[in-house]
Input
Amino acid sequence: MEKRLKIALSIAALGIVALLAGIFLSMQMGGEWRVSEDGILEYPIPEPEYSLIPFEEQGGSNSNLSEVILSEVGFSSRGAEMAGLLRVPPARPSGGFPGVVLLPGATVTKEQEQGLAKFLSGLGYASLALDQRNLGGVDIRSDLEMFLAGREPTEHKMVHDALAAAEVLRTQPGIDPDRIVYLGESNGGRFAIIASALDQRSRGVIAISTCGYDVKAEEIDLLRKSGPDAVRFLRSIDPDTYLARIPPRRLVMIHSLNDTVIPFELAERTYQKALEPKDMHIVGCATHGRCGEMDPYIEEELAGMME
Output
């Protein structure tokens, strides 16, 4: 598991908190947010309020709204105002555009994700790229403390943000609400896998340069050190926990053999746990995240998912 030793040491220090957590855990079972005994995060389908501010394509005129292809989106999600960029191709097909929810990696902004968004637009896909909460960064120790106190962890909210973005995308004129895919890079890939598993309307997920945490392999040691509720939380943020809930939709992983941030072996481990239909594409570019060698696979897989 990535950073496995650090996580185990951190949650071991919370053993006393775990003993006191029982009086708070009932709070997780009511309202809109809960985690099952198996560690599955559960949210209702969100209905976010949102605003849309269109930008014009360079060279467009103020009177020709048909040339508007890029819009700034603001929407509400779990007590926060999220920001995204909606990019829509200029020529609308009769059945509506298929759409892609883009979840960048940690520290990557929605603006920095526009290279991929432009590539998708050229293929005929609308996209909504997010500025993820905390810009995609996570603090597992802090989130565990919140969970044990009966409060909603930030990482759970980040999954909801992705679900809310998909609903915003579905409401847009000219978007086919039944042809939506999640695509994430690095940490964004983790949230994309979980959101796709929870969003049964989605067509599937493309996860680039990412992996799960392999909590299942560590459970005996974690139970001894930290207790069952800590394990339940770690399951809830582990993409591996949700792999069985993706079929019959498709999981696609794309990874570089030369990735020095998330080694290929960790991605392969997650892929082996997944059920069919699935595919893994391996490239050789010396990078973490999307590179040009991945584009043909992205094009091929999206076309298959959107049929």
Summary: The chain is about 35% helix and 20% strand. The longest helix spans residues 154-171. The longest strand covers residues 175-185. The chain has one domain: 4-305.
